[in-house]
Amino acid sequence: MNDSASAPTFKLASYNIHKAVGTDRQRDPLRILKVLAEVDADIVVLQEADRRFGTRDRTLPDFLVEQHSDYVPVPFDVQHDSMGWHGNSIMVRRDISVIDHDVLHIPYLEPRGVVTATLQLPGGAELSVFGMHLDLSGLWRVRQARAIAELAQAAQRERPTLLAGDLNEWRPNGGCLKEFARHFTLLDCGRSFHSQRPLGRLDRIMHGPSLEAVDFGVHHSPLASRASDHLPVWADLRAPAKRAAAT
Fold first, then answer.
1. Are the CB atoms for 144 and 106 separated by under 8 Å?
2. Strands 71-73 and 43-47
3. 8 A C-beta contact, residue 168 and residue 202
4. pLDDT recorded at residue 5
5. 211: closest CA among 234, 177, 236?
6. How far is CA 134 from CA 14, 38, 82, 145, 147, in A?
7. Side-chain half-sphere of 102: how many Cα atoms within 13 Å?
8. How far is 224 from 12, CA to CA, in rounded Å?
9. Model confidence over 199-241: pLDDT tens digits?
10. Which of 10, 78, 120, 131 has the fewest CB atoms within 10 Å, counting from its CB?
């Protein structure tokens, strides 16, 4: 019997929400949640989920997320009133269990960080997810990718692993993409920036060898083109079937 044929699938999305400020320069967190409803992912990796300066308040208030979505933010709790770490956050559907979570320090020219969570899907499969927003400097992006890939490889030895975020990489195959490609499969979801006229493939999803990408792409709707300067990217993935214990 082919185990992969019966293995469950799930959907992951990555979205730079630009602090909930759209192309009309209006801050509208409810609009972001409506876009996420259109995408309909099980796991959402967010960038720029907090304001950049001051107390770095979250731009998707808890009460709006609770009332207008099926998601629960992973509780990183490292920056007061923030949703994540340096603007990075992860949200999951309510039927997904958060086993563990952490924030990771990486080399940077400007303040950057990585969030990670160990999740259990409804069918019992576990996976590790890394969310990131890399530096504008190409040299620092490569250093960051090397550090993140090393940490993700360690996670991959324990369970299937996914990485997603705004890599800020314009080159199609070089720079930080080359570092990640040494160990993970990079999905070319498509052009996601700028949302009004997409040219750059800045937003990426990557997975380890134990996961299979069934489909992937960019979510481009009239609402998404206004809600942020980035479009969400998504991937349908198949997790390994959970094997029954030997008797």
1. yes
2. unpaired
3. yes
4. 55
5. 236
6. 14, 26, 19, 8, 12
7. 10
8. 17
9. 999 999 999 999 999 999 999 999 999 999 999 999 999 988 6
10. 78
pTM, to two decimals: 0.93
Residue 184's closest CA among 167, 220, 160? 160
Structure tokens at 226: 């206004």
CB-CB neighbours of 7 under 10 Å: 17
Residues 6+ apart with CB under 8 A from 227: 17, 20, 22, 28, 31, 32, 34, 35, 195
Amino acid (one-letter) located at 189: C
Q: Tokens 């979205």 correspond to what residue?
A: 15
Dihedral angle, C-alpha 55, 59, 63, 67, nearest 10 °: -170
CA dihedral 45, 112, 104, 14 (to 10 degrees): 10
Give the CA count within 13 Å in the CB-facing half-sphere of 37.
14
Residues of the chain where predicted confidence (pLDDT) is lower than 70? 1-6, 52-56, 79-80, 241-247
Domain range annotation of the chain: 3-238
Instruction: Say how many C-beta atoms besides its own lie within 10 A of residue 222's C-beta.
Output: 7
One-letter amino acid for residue 184 of the chain? F
Report angle CA 92, 95, 97 to the nearest 5 degrees: 70
Q: Which two tokens stand for residue 115?
A: 């969030």
For 3-238, give the CATH class: alpha beta
Check residue 16 and give its pLDDT: 98
